[in-house]
Amino acid sequence: MSSLKKLIGTITVNIVAIFTSLIVLIPLVVLFLNSFKSQGESNKMSLSLPKEWIFANYKTVIEQGKLVSSFFNSLLYATCSVLIIIIVVAAAAFVIARNRRGINNFIYYFIISGIAIPINNVALMEVLKALHLVNTRIGIILIYAAINIPLSLFLSYGFISTIPREIDEAAVIDGCGPVKLFVKIILPLLKPIIATLFVLNFMAVWNDFTMPLYYLNNSTKWPMTLAVYNFFGAYENSWNLVSADIILTLLPVLVVFILGQKYIVGGVSAGSVKG
């Protein structure tokens, strides 16, 4: 009787998971099919196959949507901000995890409070104006780094706390200084959480729309999300071109997620144990 209940429960869970997946997958399939259709066919927004596969839609989008420059802008913002996050967070989490007393404890809670505190765009604009970083690539990279550091520190701290202190003591006895201890001993052990932070933060930066909309006024500096927004305004009646534009924007982040998904679950679960 108990085995029958387990079987029914498993089947029910699988059915729910399948229907939930379809909610996400069906819009993507519609976009993919529409990207190869003519303008008239694409306006129906159906799951039917194109009568004629028009690959020229992608060529039109790349040439008229300025996606090449936008792609490299997105890649620059995501890569640079993620590198800053990983370097800063890994070092800070190691120091705080090994000596969480006094000022270190205050700094830890002060930084991770940013997870819950909303962004004040008015104050942030004034800060960027004072530093002459409005409408600059460096400014948007630093904004992304600052926004994503709190959660990254929380996860990294929890992960480093699971690394035994005996490893540090053995390395110090062998003559390692603080810097060599971190670079040679601790950093190689952080590969799972570093991979997790890279994937999560890369996707977050790549998919962000509001920050460049507020702080980048020059279209030559726009990432792909704003390029899609601008393209949709010009071609809102051409759903085949809009669909192709969206697919090209989604493709890089989907590749990153697929390649790094195995690290996400392990890294997040390990990093949240003692955070």
From TrEMBL:
Q: Where is the ABC transmembrane type-1 domain?
A: 71-260
Going by the UniProt record, its keywords in alphabetical order are: Cell membrane, Membrane, Transmembrane, Transmembrane helix, Transport
TM segments? 7-33, 75-97, 106-125, 137-160, 181-206, 239-259
Can you say where in the cell this protein is located?
A: Cell membrane
GO term, biological process aspect, one: transmembrane transport
- What InterPro entries does the entry give? BP-dep_ABC_trans_perm, MetI-like, MetI-like_sf
CDD domains the UniProt entry points to: TM_PBP2 (cd06261)
The way this protein sits in the membrane is described as: Multi-pass membrane protein
First-listed, main subcellular location of the protein, grouped into a coarse class: membrane
Q: Which SUPFAM superfamilies match?
A: MetI-like
List the record's Gene Ontology CC terms alphabetically.
Answer: plasma membrane
Q: Which domain of life is it from?
A: Bacteria
Show the PANTHER family listed in the entry.
DIACETYLCHITOBIOSE UPTAKE SYSTEM PERMEASE PROTEIN NGCG, MALTOSE TRANSPORT SYSTEM PERMEASE-RELATED
Q: Belongs to which family?
A: Belongs to the binding-protein-dependent transport system permease family.
Q: What is this protein called?
A: L-arabinose transport system permease protein AraQ
Q: Organism, per UniProt?
A: Clostridium puniceum
